[in-house]
Amino acid sequence: MNIAVMCSGNGSNFQAIVEASKRKKFDAKIALMVCDKPKAYALKRAENENIGTVIVDIKNFANQEAYENRIIETLEEADINLICLAGYMRILLPSFVKKYKNRMLNIHPSLLPQFKGAHAIKDAIKAGVSETGVTVHFVTDELDSGPVVLQESISVKDGDTEESLAERIHKLEHRLYPEAIKLFVEDRLKVVGDKVKILPGK
Ligand code: GRF
User: Fold this and answer.
1) pTM here?
2) How many angstroms does the Cα of residue 41 sit away from the middle of ligand 1?
3) Packing angle between helix 12-22 and helix 41-48, nearest 10 degrees?
4) Which of 61, 109, 131, 139 could form a disulfide with 104 if both were Cys (CB 3.0 to 4.6 A apart)?
5) Residue 202 C-alpha to ligand 1 middle, in angstroms?
6) What is the mean pLDDT of each run of 10 residues along the chain (202 residues)?
């Protein structure tokens, strides 16, 4: 099984996925990184790991469709079975989402459906909640929605800042994403309506 990871920024989740694959947490190859930001640190990480990268800068395409067609071409060439969005900061067109239905995961730093969008950690601090968390879900047309694969909570402590909370959230993300990938690779995720049923392991 071949996995592509799509990133826009730091790429710490990408790194965690690579480390998990090196530890043989799941039986799949991290075959490709797709990145839309030529200066993203994530690209350096992929280079260091000898993982092929594709940089697709939307500025070089006539429109989003042409841009995504280029991504699809690359994914098909690399024979990708699973796409993992990991800090990819662009909303994909419905045609792309449909093509990879139930084969594309995303990770989000909150207990979805709470705190959707790009500032989930900040929003949790602002809202004063005592619990937030991390969600891995299949991607659907609606932003930060879609059947939940794994979700785990974390308490917000008195005096937590965005930075201190983010640190714990990222740690949890780095454990949860490989777990979810393992379930996918072992064919244990069954989407029934808008829910995911986790099948027992063999
Ligand atoms: C993570 O918090 C992830 O949940 C969100 O974007 C962030 C990406 O971080 N979707 P990184 O690039 O993996 O370090």
Assistant:
1) 0.97
2) 12
3) 20
4) 139
5) 31
6) 98 98 98 98 98 97 98 98 98 98 98 98 98 98 96 97 98 98 98 97 86
